[in-house]
Design brief:
The protein is mainly alpha-helical. It contains 8 helices and no strands.
Length: 129
């Protein structure tokens, strides 16, 4: 079976909310197709772990997504959210800056940047953003 067929199956399991089956098959795919896996695979696993509130695993696969596709702004947003929730505003700021480098006019990222600056107690800078 090809990696594309496996990805189709994983997408279907995600849509059907069969998270345990998706993770199980995903681990098999990791073993069998290690050199063929792309950012979409990692991002799907990350979203699944997020839904299961397994944030460490989600963050791990988001970082794998970022490594495979540094332009994936959705992965960067989720990483920023996780870091904001953990009050790690410096790393959240870094992810938000990465988004703004890719998409300077991204309003959502601009709002995140202002929220993060507020979290860093940089109120004057937050008001400027």
């Amino acid at each position: 079976m090809s990696i594309n067929t496996k990805m189709d199956t994983l997408q279907q399991l995600f849509q059907e909310k069969e998270h345990s089956k998706l993770i199980s098959l995903g681990m098999e795919v990791l073993d069998d197709y290690e050199n063929e896996i792309g950012a979409d695979f990692y991002f799907l696993l990350a979203k699944t772990f997020l839904l299961l509130e397994q944030y460490n695993d989600a963050e791990y696969y988001l970082l794998k997504t970022k490594a495979a596709d540094p332009n994936n702004t959705e992965a960067l947003f989720i990483l920023a959210n996780i870091k904001m929730a953990l009050n790690d505003f410096y790393l959240a700021q870094s992810y938000t800056e990465d988004i703004l480098k890719l998409e300077p006019n991204n309003l959502r990222a601009q709002v995140y940047a202002a929220d993060i600056l507020y979290g860093l107690q940089s109120v004057d800078k937050a008001l400027e953003a």
